[in-house]
């Protein structure tokens, strides 16, 4: 009995073993440069990555999403006549087996997301400004589109907003709504998840400042707040989130750009740290990530500095599931740079780990 107690105490005192992951990188494909989706083993204790190689050959898989069960991966194929591809994940090798490919029902698909039960997949078409929904079959393959909505309208920026440009699909924490930032309309359009038919919420959209160009969105872990990064405005719109209606209410606009601004700058990606204390937003042109402290009671943001991504055009970045590391995907310098996250301040420090990947534009993690 005494031996059992000693073993139990020793087990509690032993350091936790962090999980190992496979990190998948979506790219823009070019002959002799990139063939599709690349895979690396990721050590969550050290932030080190080791190459597996090409996980799957597919055309311009610019954004990736993982099924909640960790067995399947999905990619948009960002081309003129766009498509969405489904893959089965080989958990031992990390390689991807193609399952099927369906039309995205629009041009230039740029983002996709699965609901939390893994029943429905939603894809945003930037080029034609539309959203499509698909049933996910038991084997991970995609059925034909179950829902579709073509956005209509324009906004004030004649060069960028002559028509709609759906830029992302984001599932609410309670799995009842899908929120779609539309850069061309200066709106976040909201739908009910329901049976993948895309019925509009009430109210059906949230408006940002004219010309700001909403791009991506992130929810706070407490489910009370949501944050929208704008591409042309280069700011973060902090919002209260009404879970009953799926509605957003602006509470603050926080500037993500450095001073002075350069005309070539634009906002790109946004993420909230798993601990809910920090928020990150990338700025292309400045090649940096703006860091904010989050007040969990009010949802408001306070600037906590910025960090260079040590590359060019950070179109995307991702925090690893532990929140210890941030991986910045520098599209135009063909590099992914790993940063350690200070858990007390949110500050980012380069680890010296750098991958050479052609035109990286998406990062996801799958637990092994």
Give your account of this protein's structure.
With 368 residues, the chain is mainly beta. It has a domain at 68-150. 3% of the residues lie in helices and 53% in strands. It has one helix and 28 strands. The chain has a four-stranded antiparallel beta sheet, with no helix packed on it. It has a four-stranded antiparallel beta sheet with strand order 4-5-6-7, with no helix packed on it. A four-stranded antiparallel beta sheet has the order 8-9-10-11, with no helix packed on it. Strand 4 (63-66) and strand 5 (72-77) form a beta hairpin. Residues 1-17 have low confidence and may be disordered.
Radius of gyration: 20 Å
The tally of beta strands, per DSSP, is: 28
Alpha-carbon distance between the two ends: 35 Å
Number of helical elements: 1
Give helix % range: under 10%
Main β-sheet: number of strands, strand sense, barrel status?
4 strands, antiparallel
Spatial order of the strands forming the largest sheet: 3-2-1-28
* Low-pLDDT runs: 1-17
Report mean pLDDT, rounded to a whole number.
95
The gross shape turns out to be globular
Entry keywords:
368 residues, mainly beta, four-stranded antiparallel beta sheet
Blueprint of the fold:
Elements (H helix, E strand, L loop, with lengths): L1 H12 L6 E8 L8 E8 L5 E9 L5 E4 L5 E6 L5 E7 L6 E8 L5 E6 L5 E6 L4 E7 L5 E9 L19 E2 L5 E6 L4 E6 L7 E8 L6 E6 L5 E6 L4 E8 L4 E9 L10 E7 L5 E7 L3 E7 L6 E8 L5 E6 L5 E6 L4 E7 L6 E9 L3 E8 L1
Antiparallel strand pairs: 1-2, 1-28, 2-3, 4-5, 5-6, 6-7, 8-9, 9-10, 10-11, 12-13, 13-14, 14-15, 16-17, 17-18, 18-19, 20-21, 21-22, 22-23, 24-25, 25-26, 26-27
